Amino acid sequence: MTLIYTDPLFARHQMPPRHPEQSARMAAVLDALAASRFDGLERRTATPASYEAIARVHPSSYLDRITSCIPETGMIALDPDTHMGPESWDAARLASGAAIAAVDAVVGLEAPNAFVVARPPGHHAERTTAMGFCLINHVAVAARHAQAVHGLGRIAIVDFDVHHGNGTQDIFYDDPSVFYGSTHQSPLYPGTGAAGERGAGNILNVPVDAGTDGAAYRPRFRDTIVAALEDFRPELIILSAGFDAHADDPLGGMGLVEDDYVWITHQMMDVAAQTAHGRLVSVLEGGYDLSALGRSAAAHVGALAGV
Questions:
Q1: CA quadruple 120, 124, 127, 129: dihedral positive or negative?
Q2: Is 77 in contact with 131 (CB distance < 8 Å)?
Q3: Which of 207, 226, 257, 301 is in Cβ range 3.0-4.6 Å of 186 for a Cys bridge?
Q4: Is 124 a catalytic residue?
Q5: What's phi and psi for 150, nearest 5 deg?
Q6: Residues 84 and 70: beta-carbon distance below 8 Å
Q7: Catalytic pick among 58, 83, 124, 300
Q8: Helix (H), strand (E) at residue 90
Q9: Residue 296: pLDDT band by 50, 70, 90 thresholds?
Q10: Alpha-carbon distance 124 to 16, whole Å?
């Protein structure tokens, strides 16, 4: 059984009109997952991540600074791309809490895998900087929780968003217990993710050109990310599941389609089966064409669930 974690609060995170990271993204994914083939999946809510859980990733100085900015009404801009409304911080804490709950369920063998449908996204949030629509780095919080609470040693985070997850790389750059592998269009925001950025040998960046389609992408992913995971032998795989490398997405220029996301998902499930007792948690990141996002997320979850 694949678990789905979501909550109505995520739709109440405010962004400016016509901003690409809009609440309609939630509706697009949840509408796609309302199809009858997903009727057997269990939907769950979660509780917000604790201060302690978030502070394993983001220092208290950052948490104090950002919570002091929460507006009572309207919204504020933390940078030209990243905004907060009155419920944005609550939504971000809940998104991290959902990722934690998914880890608890998967490590506890309640289900082999889970998909977290949440916003704001997280992979651009560095240790001390909110950016790229992101306030808290949810996959990083989930990885540290898996280590601190469940005693897992080797965690792998794989990011197939069209944008490099600079925040995740920043957080784990010198930590060989966490593998971070990213495929991303280059050049593109945020400008990080060069192949030479290797951390403690635990960082694997695979920059790809604009226009890269599935036929070109799949062998590169298999020969780099999959091969590295087989060597690393993670005890848990966490996916930064961005669907903005889709050919229809307005914020990227790659050419993946739904079948490519099915293929990526199966590759990750195969590695998880080999090294991690099948344990895999997927967390929504980008995806800004609503139709493509819905179709891609449904393809991803369909592969996770085998439906």
A1: negative
A2: no
A3: 207
A4: yes
A5: -100, -5
A6: yes
A7: 124
A8: helix 88-107
A9: very high
A10: 19
pTM (two decimals): 0.97
Tens digit of pLDDT for each residue in 171-224? 999 999 999 999 999 999 999 999 999 999 999 999 999 999 999 999 999 999
- CA-only gyration radius of the chain, Å: 17
Q: How far is C-alpha 158 from the chain's CA centre?
A: 9
Beta strand pairing status for 83-84 and 76-77?
antiparallel
* Nearest C-alpha neighbor of 53 from the set 101, 86, 7, 10: 101
